[in-house]
Design goal:
This protein is mainly α and 397 residues long. It folds into two domains: 24-199, no CATH class; 204-390, I/LWEQ domain (Up-down Bundle), CATH 1.20.1410. It contains 13 helices and no strands. It has helices at 24-46, 50-76, 82-101, 110-132, 137-162, 165-184, 204-231, 237-271, 275-285, 287-306, 314-339, 344-356, 365-387. It is globular.
Amino acid sequence: MTLDATSSSLLRARQGHEHSRVTYVELFFDLVFVFAVTQLSHALLEHLTLGGLLQTTLLLMAVWWVWIYTSWVTNWLDPERTPVRLMLFALMLAGLVLSTSIPKAFDTRGLAFAGAFVFMQVGRSLFVLRALKGHSPGNYRNFQRITCWLAVSGVFWIAGATADAGWRLGLWAVAVAIEYIGPSLRFWTPGLGASTTSDWNVEGGHLAERCGLFIIIALGESILVTGAKFGNLPWTSVAIAAFLTAFIGSVAMWWIYFNVGAERGSRHISRSSDPGRMARLAYTYIHLPLVAGIILVAVGDELVLAHPGGHTDAKTAAILLGGPALYLFGNLLFKRTTAERMALSHLVGLALLALLLPAVGIFSPLGLSAATTTVLVVVAIWETLSLRPSRSHAPAT
């Protein structure tokens, strides 16, 4: 199947193996999700309980899903065409409604959140169906299946929004499960059958770059939280130490992903004979724990800046250890997928974080944050040094 554009088509023109560039309108679209990530971290800070964590996780899964689906769509459609741009602007407006509803999604703005989400998912898919008709029969049938799945999940989103708080989490969990199971089952639909990964003929370099940009968005939110909090504090030696620790942690996370993983992943998917299969696993699913880990680290940085000294309570310890662990685990899976080996440095980093768990009681919040940041720095340095002699072969470490 080819997706070459014609004069009447809204599809991107594919020119051999040349990398399709990320357009300015795609970057403009991403600005909405800078706000969404900020809202998610603040929502977790305000509800730092198990229930709050479950709710924030579900909302993050929804936010990530609507963004990654749009990135798949702009991999096929040409954002330089006016109808596609107008579609993205409509999604941006709905995305702002969705983002502003996050803090009260399980309270008074459930219908606003669910309505915006369903509009984005179903509305975008209907637009793509129209764009693909007559130009890409295989992908047109693929989006018929996708639209059916999203319509079914939409019923649960709206039902949850109109239900009381006791039912909302459960109904929305069912909706998220439908959304996430769909690609793994290749959107099997009665009467339409199942898609094949060859139907998902993505340009791998473009999708890899889009996901890398979302990692930048999440890291940028972490730096934004750190800077805003530090700017409102007295600049004592302890506050400065907490600020530097948070910044070094952000740099280490950037290094762990972008120094090796991002470039190798882009190269691997661009050369893959089945880029759709790899895009589904490595980018659609595995990047979610990476983003979740960054958000948890941002929450931990704000907690430490607010209360750097004294006893480290269980909630703070869980955030400070869980964020880096989730981020390293996500990177481990991503690099395992793109290099087909386990990254030893990441396994050691996870083991070091586990060793910190019994010693939590002897650390202040700042001390524990410094310890977890040190682990991230060790992983970054280890991976960099181990690849230096044979970087051209890019083995996993």
